[in-house]
Amino acid sequence: MPLALLALAVVAFGIGTTEFATMGLLPQIADGVDVSVPHAGNLVSAYALGVVVGAPVLTGIGARIPHKRLLLLLSALFVAGNTASALAPDFGTLFAARFIAGLPHGALFGVGAVVASRLVAPERAARAVSKMFLGLTVANIVGVPLGTALGQHLGWRSAYYAVAVIGLVALAAIAAFVPHQPRGAQSGIRHELRAMGNKQVVLGLATAVVGFGGFFAVYSYLVPMLTHLTGISDTSTTLVLALYGVGMTVGTLLAGPLTDRALRPTLYGGLVLLAAALVTFYFTVHSTVPALLTITFIGAMGSLITTPVQMLLMAKAKNAPTMAAASNHSAFNLANAGGAWLGGLVITAGWGWAAPNLAGAALAVAGLVLAVISGRIDRGGDPSEPAASRAVSVTKESDRAAQTGQPEQTARAAANG
To answer: Do residues 299 and 248 make contact, with C-beta atoms less than 8 angstroms apart?
Structure first.
């Protein structure tokens, strides 16, 4: 089990590195393909568009493919997209390659989360999923700075080659360590789409888009905030971003056991503390030490939200959780775009470089309202009950039915004693 989770974490590490390293290499890429830096910034949008499109589409296409095989196919597409990015001769080709590289992002996380949750006992499912997500947070500490440095010294193409190598390592690790997990008796695109129509799934995705948008409203403009208001030099911002990643790692480590213990309170608390931290940063951004401490806390609270939202979606989608889990990452990319847009809007309006903190806090509060509404209409029992356990129990019953040939209702009755 630890090696299987490590293999999934390597996948997440590669995804996190390729997603954010492009931002640090825009000047080099712009020179390499002969476009302006703002025009090269569209490559970030191309990747995000690939995530938004690929999560539901690829998950739907692979709805009947066993999870391990689907992970291998998605990892191969990830390697192909990043290799194509490294080989792209012009901007148009590079734009298409970044779109392709983004396609497997959400599906890999969605399928990986379902696989991770089934590797352990139901009451430890969120901890397993959070260990996979650790790869993404560690990428912000190690992968992104190293990828950026590599691209700056050896050329931007080398960063994409390095990510492709990480993808190959992940592919080999999945093949070696992730066990086969059969699809449930009710697997298929119709069941996945039906689960996506669940009111609680819709509210969960809306919570991710709005609530996590508060995180990105600040993250997108963190570097100019630090240089204009805190007085940190351009050369030091990479270290500060790594500190942000440390906070995200701490938040992810806390999210697993807290979500297993009480899913909704963890989500509510994370959104409340995120809003409070963003308001605090509005005032502490002018002083170096308080600003760095607040940044670390913001990173932790942002990551604390991720796991409970993921587990909530998997629980409410019941025995068709894969598309809901994958679509969560489409929601996060929409949050990225929406948060960045709102943060830029308040800056352009003349409210100052610190204003995205207040806009982000407002989004976090709005996300909290959506989460509370979801909790109020939840008819699944006590809202503090670990929904992760219910989700994994249902899907494991379905898998058992597929293996034994029993009707799912019989397997469910047997599981319930």
So the answer is: yes
Q: What are phi and psi of 174, to 5 degrees?
A: -65, -45
Closest CA to 14 of 127, 118, 132: 132
> Does 274 score more than 50 pLDDT?
yes
Contacts (Cβ under 8 Å, ≥6 apart) of 127? 120, 256, 257, 259, 260
The pair of three-digit structure tokens given for residue 178, joined into one six-digit string: 């992730």
Vertex 56: Cα angle to 175 and 408 (nearest 5): 70
185-417 CATH = 1.20.1250.20
| 8 Å CB contact between 387 and 318 | no
Q: 81, 97 in Cβ contact below 8 A? A: yes
DSSP 162-179: HHHHHHHHHHHHHHHHSP
The domains of the chain are located at 1-183, 185-417
The pTM score is 0.78
Give the 3-state secondary structure of residue 233.
coil
229 close to 251: Cβ distance less than 8 angstroms: no
* 185-417 shares the fold of 1-183: yes
E-strand ranges in 214-321 read none
Structure tokens at 376: 């109020």
Per-residue model confidence as pLDDT tens digits over 191-236? 777 767 788 899 999 999 999 999 988 887 887 888 889 888 866 7
- The single-letter code of the amino acid at 272 is V
Burial class of residue 87, CB neighbours in 10 A (0-12, 13-18, 19+): middle
Reported as a single tens digit per residue, the pLDDT across 396-412 is 544 444 444 444 443 34
Nearest-5° Cα angle at 307, 301 to 310: 135
CA 316/CA 139 separation, integer angstroms: 30
Q: What number of H helices and E strands is found in the chain?
A: 19, 0
Grouping H, G, I as helix, E, B as strand and the rest as coil, residue 2 is helix
For domain 1-183, the CATH superfamily is: MFS general substrate transporter like domains (1.20.1250.20)
Angle, vertex CA 120, rays to CA 202 and CA 188, nearest 5 = 45
Cα–Cα distances (Å) from 39 to 31, 42, 43, 102, 349, in that order, read: 11, 6, 8, 19, 23
Contact between 50 and 101 under an 8 Å Cβ cutoff? The reply is: yes
